[in-house]
Amino acid sequence: xxxxxxxxxxxxxxxxxxxxxxxxxxxxxxxxxxxxxxxxxxxxxxxxxxxxxxxxxxxxxxxxxxxxxxxxxxxxxxxxxxxxxxxxxxxxxxxxxxxxxxxxxxxxxxxxxxxxxxxxxxxxxxxxxxxxxxxxxxxxxxxxxxxxxxxxxxxxxxxxxxxxxxxxxxxxxxxxxxxxxxxxxxxxxxxxxxxxxxxxxxxxxxxxxxxxxxxxxxxxxxxxxxxxxxxxxxxxxxxxxxxxxxxxxxxxxxxxxxxxxxxxxxxxxxxxxxxxxxxxxxxxxxxxxxxxxxxxxxxxxxxxxxxxxxxxxxxxxxxxxxxxxxxxxxxxxxxxxxxxxxxxxxxxxxxxxxxxxxxxxxxxxxxxxxxxxxxxxxxxxxxxxxxxxxxxxxxxxxxxxxxxxxxxxxxxxxxxxxxxxxxxxxxxxxxxxxxxxxxxxxxxxxxxxxxxxxxxxxxxxxxxxxxxxxxxxxxxxxxxxxxxxxxxxxxxxxxxxxxxxxxxxxxxxxxxxxxxxxxxxxxxxxxxxxxxxxxxxxxxxxxxxxxxx
Length: 549
What we know:
Number of strands: 16
CATH architecture of the largest domain: 3-Layer(aba) Sandwich
Structural class: alpha/beta
CATH class of the largest domain: Alpha Beta
């Protein structure tokens, strides 16, 4: 009889809840807190995790959110309410025992504990470009100049773990908050994981957000590993996400900014890893699966969540896809509350392994693309797969949060608003608008820079005073007021770089007429003086470009 790894959701009891909300590394399950079911032994090495309950929204609930009928069940202190939560434990049993578990009165549901693995690339393709090319394409230097570098923003790398020493040696040291990091087993140390996939993801997120505060969430070093050294199971993913929910719902100091971006460069690769579609324990297509529900819960408390689309693209599918290349954005990777990230190279061409839509839980997936398959972290010959594309976008989202920090109760800065912003500013690729290869296009840091840069005004009269000195019938500022105020330089220009103006402000100018007028000014000056006209005296009101005119 085949055995199945299962997530079992059980009702509230006081002792189980206390254990779940403690959730310290190395904590174990007290077998006295779970149902007694013949032939079933729950995994005592797995500390229970909570799933927040839901409460109905009244029409008058503030803030009003269109279409939302439920909120998380929170207590008077806005913490997750233990009595309205359910709890997950795990087991591995013969398939003929599943009905016995489901029928127990304390059990709410039984679900597949699906194995997940990193969305790394098909081998053999050399890197194209470098992380410096990615930074240039994202306008990272311009973003930094206006304070969009991730300062104060938390980035959780949910992966195999980060190696800080390698990050520093690769030229990209990061700030790590070890206290808010998470490991599945005692003895594992945040920031000291073996050099691998998670270190690559942290490196790539730091391209656009070098000043972010990183959380090392070592899910893919799970205590219940699958057949590869880089794999985990969804029961541990629920535990990791419940930890992140506690971070987001912990009491805040007045004025504290608590923005969290969560990077997930991993996926399920084949439906055989799961219960069949339609089975109540299914993960891939089932929004009621505990992990899909806790993804929704983390998003509701303010986290921006990104998932890799996967590497089952039709041109070069990963071997783990077993030849299946359609409808392969499974489960949370295609969740409506996350950004699903496909991959393009630095020439903006789709990489052949990038999974194509639609998604299983949300039809219009992927959302957008990130850059991938470039030489970067040094962990691999190429930082590749949708594994690398996802943290590239994660870093940009963290940079955006510098200008749009999360604030509870403000829909304008809710995760849904950030997802809409990222989609609307993406550079369209492929078919016009959304398509299943690219989503809405590739992440566009340059467009975001233009959206958030402060206005820089150029005073033409100060830069070229001779143009503004009054002459009979030749008042250039009255004829062309757009030349004399409110002209912004292009990205990267200094305020007085007259040769680097944003010419969009001048689209309605007849440049033939303008040149003729400039010629007339020169002709006038040549006939009425030495050919050199002094600037108007400081403070003079004769300059026709003055602010008060």
